[in-house]
Amino acid sequence: MTMAWTLTALVILLWSSHVVSSIRRASDNESPVAAYLVTVRRPDGLLVGGLLDEEVELWHTYLLGQVCNASDPATAERFPTAESRLICSYSHVVSGFSAWLTRQEVADMASRPWFVEAVPDKAYKLMSLHDDQRWLGSVRDGVWDKGNMAEGITIGVLKPKAGLLIDKAAFAVAPKAHLAIYPTAGMAAAVDDGVDVIVTSVPAAGTDEESYRAVGRGVVVCAPAGSSGPDMLQLESAAPWLLTVAASDTDGRVVTNVVLGSGILKPDVSAPGGIIAQQEDDDAQATSMAAAHVSGVAALLKKARRGWSPAAIKSALVTTADPAGPADGATAMSYLVAGAGEVNPVKAMDPGLVYDLTAGDLVPYLCGMRLGDDRTRDIVGASCAEAGEVAAKDLNYPSILIAMDDRVQQAEARRTVTNVAGDSAATETYRAEVTGAQGVAVAVTPSTMVFGDDAAPKTKRDFVVTVRRLASTPAKAVIEGELKWVSEKHAVRSPMVIVVGETTAASSAAYGAYAAASIRSIS
């Protein structure tokens, strides 16, 4: 399909309802087949979009023909050919197909050189649709002006996020946005159509390649944090290219727990997810609505700050977020649960400095995670032998996570900031301020950065954060603090977490009554 909108935001459901209903029909007939999403390696030299859709389907049918040999009469009658097994082909963002397969056929497929993985279809529970008018009202101050009310932007499925413009009243984040839904191959089709924002209604597990390539095309991908799964790239939206959102209620309390596993501090931010009872299932439900809120703000930023990358938009949201916690401010919220805090749409429009990244910058990070050269190539299309490695702590992320096991007395994290202030010609001096981080010594070098002066006109500056153990440093601890770059006009705040020793669980005393984050050893 073709879109005429200048800016577009998207709510996407991975695996469409027609596939789910078909699975139920297959289950009713007690068929041994089930729907699988199969990722395959592209043939050497094949470029994305290098084949017509019909040619891709023929290729996938050929691959299916290598493994589809059903001996069960009912299956053979229902699916007489390999072509009849094929549900849909994908080639733009992910290389693969969905098909009806038996477990034995999947096992046979796993031995083929073109096979990457097969994920069985399952039903995902959609999440809460409650709004927080207190938060939405904050965007009236300078964000909803006549030039930026998200006119022409498309948001789908979660209709409260689009809003309705009425004389002397406005509702939701993007009041002039359109609504749209992409089924099944939605992410691939959306990226091919040139959308600007994607928000998923379920955690982004199993969509690593699609979401990475979407971000590489300049798309902001918002995903709910959820609350299950500690593994890198198979958890609740922990990939660093995603904008991962936790949910807070109307009192600013976060209603989800998040497990660490990617070496990156997640979630990134929180946003209203409704008044949700704090039970495990409800915790997961709330984050989808929160992601929808943030996607609206991301859409406003895309329109107001043309040319900003997805990483720059994420950085603006993270470094300008308001610290999360109850309305009375009595208990601060853990970064491991709330991210940097609750998104502040007004401040995000003018963050001062951003931590920028390109899709290419993420390749050495993935190589540093030691996923294996084949898996990394499947996701990013590059070899670790060529890209090298970068430790997770040195990825140019707007938050900082440093792990120090018993062998490490001192650790460093490197960052680069880019000046995006409106008046780039004006001189602006930033000074580093570190708060919290009790139990370790933190130094920032250099401690002062100047932008816009004649002697140093560059828009980028590098700095190093050094963390050192003290005699009083606990043997095992999760220590939180923050780094602020402060000028007369801006305060650029980065959450900072230091994991000391082989810590596997966060102390409730360190995190307050509402923080309960399970942390996997990442050193």
TrEMBL record:
<dbReference type="InterPro" id="IPR036852">
    <property type="entry name" value="Peptidase_S8/S53_dom_sf"/>
</dbReference>
<protein>
    <submittedName>
        <fullName>Uncharacterized protein</fullName>
    </submittedName>
</protein>
<dbReference type="Pfam" id="PF00082">
    <property type="entry name" value="Peptidase_S8"/>
</dbReference>
<dbReference type="InterPro" id="IPR010259">
    <property type="entry name" value="S8pro/Inhibitor_I9"/>
</dbReference>
<comment type="similarity">
    <text>Belongs to the peptidase S8 family.</text>
</comment>
<dbReference type="Pfam" id="PF05922">
    <property type="entry name" value="Inhibitor_I9"/>
</dbReference>
<feature type="signal peptide">
    <location>
        <begin position="1"/>
        <end position="22"/>
    </location>
</feature>
<feature type="domain" description="Peptidase S8/S53">
    <location>
        <begin position="185"/>
        <end position="324"/>
    </location>
</feature>
<keyword id="KW-0732">Signal</keyword>
<dbReference type="InterPro" id="IPR037045">
    <property type="entry name" value="S8pro/Inhibitor_I9_sf"/>
</dbReference>
<dbReference type="InterPro" id="IPR000209">
    <property type="entry name" value="Peptidase_S8/S53_dom"/>
</dbReference>
<dbReference type="Pfam" id="PF17766">
    <property type="entry name" value="fn3_6"/>
</dbReference>
<dbReference type="InterPro" id="IPR041469">
    <property type="entry name" value="Subtilisin-like_FN3"/>
</dbReference>
<feature type="domain" description="Subtilisin-like protease fibronectin type-III">
    <location>
        <begin position="394"/>
        <end position="498"/>
    </location>
</feature>
<dbReference type="InterPro" id="IPR045051">
    <property type="entry name" value="SBT"/>
</dbReference>
<feature type="domain" description="Inhibitor I9">
    <location>
        <begin position="54"/>
        <end position="127"/>
    </location>
</feature>
